Amino acid sequence: MPADAVPAPEPVPAPAVAAAVDAARDEAVAALLAFAPDAVELGRRFAEAGHTLALVGGPVRDALLGRLGAAATTDLDLTTSARPEESARLVGRWGEAAWDVGAAFGTVGGRRGDVVVEVTTYRTDLYDRVSRKPAVEFGDSLDADLVRRDFTVNAMAVTLPDGAFVDPCGGLRDLAHHVLHTPRAPEESFADDPLRMMRAARFSSTLGLRVAPAVVEAMTAMADRITMVSAERVRVELEKLLLGADPRAGLELLVGTGLAAHVLPELPALQLEVDEHHRHKDVYEHTLTVLEQAMALEDGPDGDVPGPDLVLRLAALLHDVGKPATRRFEPGGGVSFHHHEVVGAKMTTKRMRALRFDTATTKQVARLVELHLRFHGFSGGEWTDSAVRRYVTDAGPLLPRLHRLTRSDSTTRNQRKAARLSASYDALERRIEELTAAEELAAVRPDLDGEQIMAALGVPPGRVVGRAYRHLLELRLDRGPLGEDAARAELLAWWAEQPEASEG
């Protein structure tokens, strides 16, 4: 061996690995019990009544991952051997409030201070594979209850109050290997609830877990079953995926398995064929890179765009969805996508409505898609004051996000071109700051308000006032502040040319 060679590390014996895993497990369980003393007390009440109670799902998993936070300890899922009526009695005595979450499903809710619990009786459901509605059957075994859950990493439990760790499906092992398995055959699990396929993609984004090959294979074979799930449930999983630390991983899984073709077909449609004669960027890869770059520009909690920001991430994901519909092969081998931002904004609105996004979010994302190319129309030349005013006014409160989306949209490998685009946008932002300081661009208004317009023209409220207002706003954007006298003169000159003036 050469003198400067670094010797390979000695392999760690398997017993040492097992001991380390056991120690980490015990530490995580202790931390979970320490952070959830109210749940421990509730477990004591159930035990005194002759029932078992256990923490399940996310809090257990997150404790093992070292991600235990306030949300994990104040919103707790528990499972019990007690029937719903007995759970309701015990939770009612423990908490300040109790309620029926779903008696038919065996779930009782309760609150004590900031701690909210949902206690569900052990279940051994049988699903109708057509309607997906379970025929609820209560069980008597914690292990059997855990086996029916979506993934092994969510099929672990900690019994209360004693803190015993229960893991019949090897969830701890899978967490240690960063892999996602289903407790049963994935085909059975996904047939029971097809939304679990979306959750697999979500967990690859939020938890950094690699989805097991058998699970990917089942997702691919059963992708069309996602159409049985309501749009609202699909949207919730997509939102969580996009807000994760690695949405690329989740999105690539959706596309690779064919799920995206059913829930977000605009994404796989971006995989445009690129040939040697008609060269253009790989729009799909470009889109994922833009998303990652936009995420990198999100701010801390006190910034203009605190991350994770759903609107910015959706806009980055959808900004080029209009390209497939507008692609044209030009003479000489070029490719154009004229007006793809306008087409893309319409497609974005349609898709987000289909996924039942709220109206405000849909409008914001579609507007960013529509505006994302506005900068490039001026990047090669000097920005006039009028152009700057219009840029700021059209973006409105979305301006901080538009800044980040526009910067993220540069994925060129040409360092000189990238530097030129960055410098050009730096110059635009400086111009915006200068004009904002001088003219309060964030609140651009005409020099006359509606009351002043009606007084000057002698007209009542109506469409004429709206048209006059828009005319003065255009003048304000083009020429800056005019002052009331000059604006009134311009208004009267405009009014003299309107047909309604002669009718009066």
UniProtKB/TrEMBL annotation:
PROSITE patterns: HD (PS51831). Residues 283-435 form the HD domain. Residues 418-445 form a coiled coil. Keywords: Coiled coil, Magnesium, Metal-binding, Nucleotide-binding, Nucleotidyltransferase, Transferase, tRNA processing. Its cofactor is Mg(2+). GO terms for molecular function: metal ion binding; nucleotide binding; nucleotidyltransferase activity; tRNA binding. One of its GO terms (biological process) is tRNA processing. Signal peptide: none annotated. It holds the Pfam family PolyA_pol. PANTHER family: CCA TRNA NUCLEOTIDYLTRANSFERASE 1, MITOCHONDRIAL (PTHR46173). This is Poly(A) polymerase. It comes from Pseudokineococcus lusitanus.
